[in-house]
Amino acid sequence: MSITIAVAGNPNTGKSTLFNALTGLRQHTGNWPGKTVERKEGEFRHDGRLVRVVDLPGTYSLTAVSSEEIVARDFIVEGNPDAVIVIVDATNLERNLYLVLQVLELTNNVVVALNMMDQVEGKGVRIDLGALSEQLSVPVIPIVALKKEGIPQLVETVMDICAGKRALHPVSATFDEPIEQSIAQLEPLVENGDYPSRWLAIKLLEGDSDVKEMLQASGNSAAVQAAETLVEQSAGQPEVLIAEQRYELISRIARRSIHHEEDIEYLTDRIDDIVTHKILGLPTLAIIAGFTLWAIYNIAGPIGGLFERFFNVVIDWAGGLLAGAPWWISGIIVDGILIGCQQIFVFMFGVLVVFFFIYGILEDIGYLARGAFVMDRIMKWLGLPGKAFMTLFAGYGCSVPGVMGTRIIDDESDRIITSVVVPFIPCAARIAVITAIVPIFFGSGLTATIVTLGILNLSLLIVALVAIMLKRTVFKGEPSGLVMEMPDYHLPLLSNVLRTTWDRTYDSMSKALMIFVPFSIVIYLLFHLPAGAAVADSYGMTIGSFLDPIGKIIGLSGKDMTGFLFTYPAKELSLLYLGLSYGGVGKEAVAGFMGDVWTPLQAISYLVFLTLYAPCLATVAAMAKEIGWKWTWWNVIVSLIAGFGFAGLIYWVGVLLGWG
Amino acid sequence: MLWDGRWLHRSGFGSCENMQIFYGRKHVQVSNPGLTHQRVEMEHALKAAYALQDEGRAWHSVELARSLGFPDALAENIAQALIASGWAEESEPGSMRLTETGKARAVELIRAHRLWELYLVDREGMPLDAVHTEAHRREHEITPEELEKLDIELGYPAWDPHGHVIPASGSRMPPPAGRSLLEVAVPGSRTRIVRLDDEPVELLTQLVALGLKPGIDVETLSLESNLLRLRLDENVVPLSYAAAGHVFVVSATARPVPMGTLAVGSRAQIVELVGSGKLERRMLSMGFVPGAEVTVIRQAPLGDPLQYRVKKANIALRRDEANTLLVKELPGEE
User: DSSP letter string over A353-410?
Assistant: First the structure.
């Protein structure tokens, strides 16, 4: 029979590192059912037995603030793990013990993994492991997850508990008389469920909305009402009293087991003095962001080039292989699927890898929280929560991870607003098209820079407009705030960064490809049917001529508008389409003739529309999954309005000024 | 508005013009509510008696008459009137005390007076030094039901604009908070004004003109022969010893302040959480609990958010979130 263990812990305690150290490469990710919370699971073998490890989301407590806490506690109770490892940051023990106490309210089979033991001394702290273990009455194992120290001992201890060799009777928080009386009154009302009745009673007194809903759904509204009455009658908020008394217990435990020698000035403080400095803070962020973009163009380009050559070989080979097949088979496979995949890999893969790698490093060393700290005032002005900065930043890489990244935002309405605005941030694909087309018309001097920056800033303006509008109308009066830990800096662990880079790239790429391939086939057929017709006479182009009047709004032809349909799956296909429809594949070819097709003003209109008109199909899919179809449609419609509005405005004002 | 200007048009009942109440008759029919001016005078006498008794000593009818500005000859009449109305009794020969009914009515009058003062300042924009007389007029006319409505409309305030505690309905008067600035002022001490005497009005006018009012912090800079020099915000103002005796203060750190108002580098202890949302819940779990010590580490380049250290962890909070915690500032480390 297999064994299941769960790993719980605060964010930034090295939980993923421990999880990776336990499971190695044998892990898979998915979502918790019904929740937009990532679920990571892995396994290892111990004495021939299969041990399943479930990585619970990082939380500070088990009282419902967001889905993370609910997922974590539900698994501890309903997933029935044989043991729970609570990983604890030894350098910040008191705050971390808060979660330990809460886990102990749910299960006795707990092992505390005391991580970062190597840094404890440097911080002037001495921990008496024996005393701590005695105080908590559960095993406490010192580890250094980054160096894989202490892992075997941890596993042995966990196995002992799973095998029932150690029966634990851990410490539990007792509260002041009035709270205990309320608990005693509520307990009989909530008995006979999976959850311990004392735990349910405490959660009711804390006002936990999820527990209330759960009880109400099971027809036990009497308990909920009783709890609400008790809360009303209580002197002081029970929620605050309970938290306060838990921390009092922790202080008692800490007094006997932790000795603070002296406060040493941490390296973290000195770094923060610079990166969050009054004057240097924002430039530091700008340099990091600038470097990221620079790296994307200078490293992603060559990676793309490699893929281009690789796919060319594959395409030639497949073309030869399919030489005898009917035109539509080779067309679908070579021109539809293979060339489409080539485009996605050339434009997207390198960008994603580079971006996620840098993002992962910034995240791992702890800078991302500083970026959010420095930028928060602007987020607040936009009505966005502080953490939105991180996902907006990710949006410069690709909107898909940007949208999925909104999961870190606690509040539902905040998450919706952020998801809706992220796609307006020009992703690497759009930036690639902009930087490919601008030089054709404006060279590489000052004008080109102004046009490029103008288009990029226009999209930021839309982000601001949409966010402010939503916050002032639909989500009026809903407060959003910032309560964010700024973890200590530490050196990045390359294997962690590579793993998250790979996971995220894989996720975005597979989403893009899955949606893209079928669409690509349809597009191919549209432009090659009826059979034997030239592209100019195809259905696609016929549709294009219908789009002429619509194109007029923004000064473009129906053919160009067809291009927007064509590139809807992925906007980086624009260059391919322009080549296909105006006669020549490849960057150089496009550069050769586009200058004769459009005026500079039309080029600007095209790029503005391309940047704004609607998120690509992959983003739409991600949005629908994260925030539902209603808000996805809302985004698509607003994008179309913004695209036509701004491109049209710029074009016609330009014409009036005689630039046409 | 529930409370329009109708009260303003009523004529006042100054002490002198109504002295005949006590001169003219042996038995004053205070139970007749129709005799408004009589009742007003009686209630003034009751309040004066309450003030005497509140100082914790027995009082004599002559003392009461003097505090009301009446000749000694009227003392007996006033005392008899109070006894007849059931508000006072003779505890021992020559010594008077208020009955429970008398005390309750006195507290109710004080409550009405202070609520009216707050109403006049807050809702009618009357200057602080002008409200006393007007509130004096209105306090007698209001019915208990109207008083409740006024209390609700003002949001159950705890302090009147002078910084006096407004007693809750049916409660006893708590002792006035704070000690006189004259008593506690030492150079360099920071204190918070909790209350200004509302009489004499001329002095109050002066204090208000100097910028002194309840709720603000003042720092005593120096004590000179007959003068205190105080710093209020950026201004330095002189205050005579006589005037300082009418300003009541508490130590500036005694009253909890919102955490967002603390300066970078200061340390504080959390006293209370006033919010109750998801963010507050997260703050609780991160260690922002009553009793916890917090240090303000820095503020972001654009002024918000702020970085706090609590339980050895660094947490960024927007000022709005920080302000949902009330804290007591602790003396700084060197």
Answer: HHHHHHHHHHHHHTHHHHHHHHHHHHHHHTT--TTHHHHHHHHTT-HHHHHHHGGG--
